[in-house]
Amino acid sequence: MPIETVQRSIHLRRKTNQRVFQNIARLGELSKLSQSHQELLDGLHPWGADHRLRFENMLPILLGIIAVLCLLSVWILPAGIPSHLAFWLAAGFSLYSYLTYEQDDPIQDVIRALEQQVIAQKYHWQFYQPPAHINIPVQPTLFTAYLKNLFPLFQQGSVANEIPVYASTLWTDEQGQQYPVLLFQYHFVDEIRLRGKNGEETKVKEVHKDLWGVFIFQVPAQGLAVTTSRKTFEFPYLHDWHTSDIQINQRLRIYGADPLQLAKTLTPAMVLRLDQLFATRCGDLLLHPEQDVLCFLGEQDLFKIATKAQNIDDISKLRGHLRTFRLAEYENLQRDLIAFLK
């Protein structure tokens, strides 16, 4: 039997914290029943009951402190009944403190679930679903593997290269042009090895890193690669290109699959749009030479929530948080890439 199951079976739930668990259960039901962002917010006000979303752990903490003091007194009190009594008091207080202390994991879990639901409703994301223009069933593993193989960006890890989180949506520009989009998190693991005195390699540690990006579909194939780093690209982006602007050449490195196509693509207007796109961000922008797909990959966390809420410990603060939080990095990238595609 897992230790978590044993802990739950012997756990003592105090009446004060029981109300918090009731609120958590009610939030879970509201999440299942709400069909829109506004419907979810309406379900949170008026709440009409105890608003607390914070466990009261003052008594378990106080008992834990007393238990430590009793245990320390064992070495101070004379041997015999006093020291034995202090030991058993320490054991009793420690056990009760352990059984009544509540971790805040259930609260954080339900808040994260509500945040994900609001994101899906507010930004029209479909988590772990392919874009709408792909109207045939696809296996998630094969689908992400296919996307990674389109661009030479997803082999940065010597141990692992994964897309653990992705969501599809649809972007629309001012002229009504729609672009199917897949935003994603790219996680890779690199292994650091050192060579010993005898020439053998020894693993020192694994380095985990995350990048975030988007695939935009139904974008004309142009065979273009642009980066703000000093790196080069693998096939097919083997031909480098320099613009007539020295400052842009210092900030951006431009490559392509075909020199003639590069000359046609990199018009003054195109170079200006690239300059504007990378004016406030770093990353890689690639357009496939054959498939109508664009990929942008950078260090900005597109899933990161920007909020003014601090210490969400009641239903009112939770409602305010769910009403006002934004995905600022995602919104900025969406705005800039739509402007680039005009």
Describe the 3D structure.
The chain has 342 residues and is α+β, with helices and mostly antiparallel strands. Helix content is 43%, strand content 21%. It has a 9-stranded antiparallel β-sheet with strand order 1-2-3-4-9-8-5-7-6. α4 runs antiparallel to α5 (81-100). It is extended. 21% of the residues are buried.
Features:
alpha+beta, 9-stranded antiparallel beta sheet, 21% strand, 342 residues, single chain
The structure class reads alpha+beta
Q: Which strand order do you get reading across the main beta sheet?
A: 1-2-3-4-9-8-5-7-6
Name the average pLDDT.
91
Q: What share of the residues does DSSP label as strand, in percent?
A: 15-25%
Q: Total number of helical segments?
A: 12
Q: Based on CA inertia axes, which overall geometry fits?
A: extended
Radius of gyration, whole Å: 28 Å
Q: SSE order in H/E notation?
A: HHHHHHEHEEEEEHEHHEEHH
* First-last Cα distance: 59 Å
**Low-confidence spans: pLDDT under 50, at least 5 residues?**
none
Largest sheet: 9 strands, antiparallel
How helix-rich are the residues, as a percent range?
40-55%
Using DSSP, what is the number of strands? 9
Write a short abstract of this structure.
With 342 residues, this protein is of the alpha+beta class.
Topology:
Blueprint (H helix, E strand, L loop, with lengths): L2 H8 L4 H19 L3 H8 L13 H16 L7 H20 L4 H19 L2 E2 L12 H11 L9 E13 L5 E18 L5 E17 L6 E4 L11 E3 L4 H6 L1 E4 L2 H7 L2 H10 L6 E4 L5 E6 L16 H10 L3 H14 L1
Antiparallel strand pairs: 1-2, 2-3, 3-4, 4-9, 5-7, 5-8, 6-7, 8-9
